[in-house]
Write a sequence for this structure.
């Protein structure tokens, strides 16, 4: 699933996460990696929302960031 956000909007959301959530982005990415092993974008977003009470936009940004970093490692 692709996001309908600009790269700038994504970056702004990622930068705000520590202030909004009280946890660093790296902590959230670790939680995603250690989570229930969901594969689909929407499933991972919904898991973050339900398990950690994150707003949809931040959960989506975190899942997207996780996917971006995984692709960067493979390349």
């Amino acid at each position: 699933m692709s996001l309908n956000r600009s790269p700038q909007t994504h970056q702004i959301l990622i930068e705000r996460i520590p202030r909004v959530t009280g946890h660093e982005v790296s902590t959230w990415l670790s939680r995603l990696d250690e989570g229930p092993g969901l594969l689909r974008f929407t499933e991972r977003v919904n898991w973050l929302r339900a398990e950690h009470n994150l707003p949809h936009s931040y959960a989506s940004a975190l899942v997207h960031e996780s996917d971006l970093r995984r692709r960067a490692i493979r390349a």
